[in-house]
Automatic annotation (TrEMBL), chain A:
PANTHER family: ATP SYNTHASE GAMMA CHAIN, ATP SYNTHASE SUBUNIT GAMMA, MITOCHONDRIAL. CDD domains: F1-ATPase_gamma (cd12151). This is ATP synthase gamma chain. One of its GO terms (biological process) is proton motive force-driven plasma membrane ATP synthesis. It is found in: Cell membrane; Membrane. Pfam families: ATP-synt (PF00231). One of its GO terms (cellular component) is proton-transporting ATP synthase complex.
From TrEMBL, chain B:
Pfam families: ATP-synt_DE, ATP-synt_DE_N. This is ATP synthase epsilon chain. It comes from Ligilactobacillus aviarius. The gene is atpC. Produces ATP from ADP in the presence of a proton gradient across the membrane. The keyword Membrane applies. Residues 89-113 are annotated as: Disordered.
Length: 318, 139
């Protein structure tokens, strides 16, 4: 009996230690979650500004006229932001998959990967779909997953900070946009987990490039609602010209979209990591209480046996 | 100062608001030249050059902010400067800016050797940003 007593005790101790670790990890995730949420709040101000300007430009139907003219003349300058408006026949589809670099984040990665596979099935019906898809992986889990399945990895980035700064993300965005303008793919989706609240996150796949009148049109509706709440959108003077402003605003818009997606994904990563660690700690609690019961029983039975032995011995002496 | 009309300047970047103040005059460099904005200016949109924005804080006193490209939007006496990067003069880390300048120069050289037009353009923009920061911090 003593042996089992010892082993139960040992298991309790080790579970307790694991629980300490998961507790600590949960706290770290929660802190990071708070940090990134604060950061996201300040980013939202910036995003809202860009959105309102884009909405304004979209309202003046500038986007439509430009997308028509640029697709007809096939702008040769790849750095020109107007390339982002270019709609080409879709031969290849780029998919940015944002996953985490490390594990212990619950179902975070598997959700993204599973849903992305569904998206790939929908996007390309052809048998050789692997040729039509270019995967741009942010985060090692996604990169490994798609590499193993023999997909074409066009871009890979690992080690995004826990609270990514814009400066860090910028090269990623630029690389992606350059790939689009140079024709590595004709349509770009960004797949990530959108943070709803600490307990839930929801998969999102957004088409980000080319920037079309339709996907700005969605914004327009949002913008209109905002405008109703606030003042009527003023008629702006444009300096030097609306086209020139578009040249500046569009790349910033695209950058802010991708940055927003990465921030959102990271937020949800921290949230699910925090939730996963919380449930791990709770499970550890359950295990400990079961083991404690087992331990107490074992100890009690040991005591009982001892007493029986003593009384038995005494009875034999008398 | 208090009874004069004022406008609010706010400089926002993806990493948050860098600067916010009330002023009677803000001078921005646009791609076409300088643009001074005073209260009750008509609503305007303008693209900004990689340069500085000066915000008047008193007689001959200006707050200077280095802008790494972006645009401005002015309406209802609120001037929003939406930049991908911005730093106040006091916060500029000169040694970091100098390192960035050297890096950009190396990249330009490399791009020229390899005839990489895109990379060259990008490196030139980085160099401009770095030089702009150095210039403003040296005022």
């Amino acid at each position: 009996m003593a042996g089992s007593l010892q082993s139960v005790k040992r298991r309790i101790n080790s579970t307790k230690k694991t629980q300490q670790i998961t507790n600590a990890m949960q706290m770290v995730s929660t802190v990071k979650l708070n940090q990134i949420q604060r950061h996201t709040a300040s980013y939202q101000v910036y995003a809202a500004k860009i959105r309102s300007v884009i909405t304004h430009l979209a309202k003046s139907h500038l986007l439509d006229s430009i997308s028509v003219s640029s697709s007809s003349k096939k702008s040769d300058d790849p750095m020109s932001s107007l390339g982002m408006l270019q709609q080409r026949p879709v031969k290849k589809v780029g998919i940015v998959v944002i996953t985490s670099d490390r594990g212990l984040v619950g179902s975070y990665n598997s959700t993204v990967l599973k849903q992305t596979m569904t998206l790939i099935d929908n996007v390309s019906k052809a048998d050789n779909k692997k040729d039509d898809i270019v995967i741009l992986a942010i985060g090692s889990t996604g990169a490994d997953f798609f590499k193993q399945r023999g997909f074409n990895i066009g871009y890979e980035y690992q080690g995004v900070n826990d609270v990514p700064k814009f400066k860090e993300v910028r090269p990623i965005v630029q690389a992606i946009v350059t790939m689009f303008t140079s024709g590595a793919f004709d349509k770009l989706y960004v797949c990530y987990n959108h943070f709803v609240n600490t307990l839930t996150s929801e998969f999102r796949a957004e088409q980000m490039l080319p920037i079309t009148a339709e996907n700005v049109g969605d914004l327009e509706n949002d913008g209109l609602e905002e405008a109703k709440e606030g003042q009527i959108a003023p008629a702006y003077d444009a300096e030097p010209s609306q086209n020139a402003i578009l040249e500046v605003v569009l790349p910033q818009y695209a950058e802010s979209l991708v940055y927003g997606a990465i921030l959102d994904a990271k937020t949800s990563e921290h949230a699910s990591s925090s939730t996963a660690m919380k449930s791990a700690s709770d499970n550890a609690d359950d295990i400990i209480s079961t083991l404690q019961l087992q331990y107490n029983r074992a100890r009690q039975s040991a005591i009982t046996t001892e007493i029986t032995e003593i009384t038995g011995a005494q009875a034999a002496l008398e | 100062m208090s009874d004069k009309p004022e406008l609010t300047v706010s400089v926002v970047t993806p990493d948050g608001e860098v600067y916010e103040n009330k002023t009677t005059l803000a001078i921005c460099k646009t791609a076409e030249g300088e643009l001074g904005i005073m209260p009750n200016h008509t609503p305007v949109l303008a693209s900004l050059a990689i340069d500085e924005v000066r915000v008047k804080t008193g007689e001959d006193q200006y707050d200077e902010i280095a802008i790494g490209g972006g645009f401005l939007e002015f309406s209802n006496n609120v001037l929003s400067i939406v930049a991908s990067a911005a730093e106040r003069k006091e916060n500029i880390d000169t040694s970091r800016a100098e390192r960035a300048r050297d890096r950009a120069k190396e990249r330009i050289e490399k791009a020229q050797n390899e005839h990489d037009v895109k990379e060259l353009k990008r490196a030139e923009i980085s160099l401009k940003r770095a030089l702009n920061r150095i210039k403003i911090s040296g005022h």
